[in-house]
Amino acid sequence: MASDVMWARRKVLTEVLVPWVGVVALIVGGVFGLWQYAGKLHGDRVERTMKFRDEFRTGNVAEASAKVAETWTTRQLALASKLRDKNTTRAVFATYVADVLQEAQSRSALLLVSEFYDDLAVCVKEGVCDKGTAKTFFAEGARLTYNLHEGYFEEVLARQSIQAGEGMRYIALLK
Questions:
Q1: How far apart are CA 172 and CA 155, in angstroms?
Q2: How many Å is the maximal CA-CA distance in the chain?
């Protein structure tokens, strides 16, 4: 009789415990699967951002970026003088930048770099590229380039109905 009672208790315990163990296992498995999926998505975003980095370091974008940098490297003293001049207004500086870009034939290079940043900004905004990786690789360069050309983008290009610099500004301000 005692064994029948023990058997009945074990049966009840098993009938209650087994479903709960199954539910817990299902939840733990689901959470683990979601964790792995989230990690894969993040990895995919980082990989897409790294493709932008590769594009920025090679080919047309690299050449354009180097041309813009060279334009200002060879004119450092004149640029510093213009920036220190108390008579230099935003509009005067924008015109100066436009003249330098025209003289150095760097306008198209700057626009190509701006288009690159526009594409990267869309990728980050849509969550296809990783924001942190984009910030690490691109924010400082975008900030320097945008700050130097901001007046040019807003004063000169806007008058010509050319939209440029917004993606660069977005990447420069990533937090």
A1: 19
A2: 106
